[in-house]
Amino acid sequence: MKTLIVGIGALGGIVAARLRAVGVPVRLATRNAESAARLKASGLRVTGVGGSLTVEAPEVTALDEYSTRDTFDLIVLATKANDAIEVAPRLVELLGPGGTLLPIQNGGVPKMLADRLGGDRVLGGLSNLGATMTAPGVYEQRNAGHLLIGEVAGGESQRAERVRQWLARGVEVRVTPNIRGAVWSKLLLNCSVTTLGAIAGRTMRDYIASEEGRELFDRTYDEALSVALSSGARPERMIVDPVPPDWNGRSVPSEAHDAWLCQILNSYGDVKPSMLQDFERGRITEIEFINGYVVNLGRQFGVPTPANAAVVETVRSITRRKISPDPKLLGRILQASRAGARRK
Predict the structure, then answer these.
(1) 134 with 10: CB under 8 angstroms?
(2) Beta bridge partners of 47
(3) Which of 72, 93, 263, 342 gets the most CB atoms within 10 Å of its CB?
(4) Region of residue 73 (left: phi > 0; alpha: psi -120 to 50; beta: else)
(5) CATH code of domain 181-343
(6) What is the C-alpha to C-alpha distance for residues 238 and 235, in angstroms, rounded to an integer?
(7) Terminal CA-to-CA distance of the chain, rounded, Å?
(8) Pairing of strands 44-48, 95-103
(9) Digit-coded pLDDT (tens) for 6-57
(10) What 3-state DSSP class applies to 217?
(11) Which pTM does this prediction carry?
(12) How far is CA 127 from CA 111, 156, 185, 227, 301, in A?
């Protein structure tokens, strides 16, 4: 299966390195020629969970240098969501007959691309691999996670199984008949764990200790779950059951809810939010594909999302450097979301 990996950041770099380490001949595409030259010189090095390894990267080229003569059976799209939406139409031109584009991003990217480019070309994917790029070509794998893939329209397919078998030579890959539900399950946590932690400049364990942080977590989660269910999605159990105990459209305080939240804390409580790293590095965030996606779909299905809308505006302000991450911002968002809920 002739394969191209686009985006050699944390996820793409680890997948590429582990595939090359077992002899799978993947080609790599970077943002520009300078990045390609740097990776050719340094190779790819992985440490952490799954074992350390170093491989050469001779077949790495700037994406613009690939032409329609370079056709592929599989293109793994491992860029940030914003870049994925922009570059995907170009990548479809590089697919051979029956070729597959596999986007692996947060939020609604797989469905957006399938709607735009055709489900026959796009296979859905998401990652539970914890990964960090400490320097170009240098990566740390932080958990024994996996890639999850499946048909965006749902159900099983030979295509998904073929892709699984091919990529599973280097990393763990699982197939689900409900990739849409799995994407939502991760999105629910992205909206409430990752984004709120980034805004506060803290880990989840830190910000959830305050009454305001706890209430805002519930509000953003509840809104996102309501939108997911209204859209017809069936979120799947991942770390926890996606529907909190005794949920009635909003979270209900109880010992069962505390235990449910504790399971999330055990997995994500001490992780530095990836969006906070985006703030620190001056990069564009994926907020429009996370909480922003919830707000847009909520508008479409008539589901109020004042907490998520306030989160989006706050992240935009931080990105424009009008404000800085601070736990006090959670209180301001909570006040805005309460006011928005009263207006509804």
Answers:
(1) no
(2) 140
(3) 72
(4) alpha
(5) 1.10.1040.10
(6) 9
(7) 52
(8) unpaired
(9) 999 999 999 999 999 999 999 999 999 999 999 999 999 999 988 999 999 8
(10) helix
(11) 0.89
(12) 15, 19, 12, 22, 27
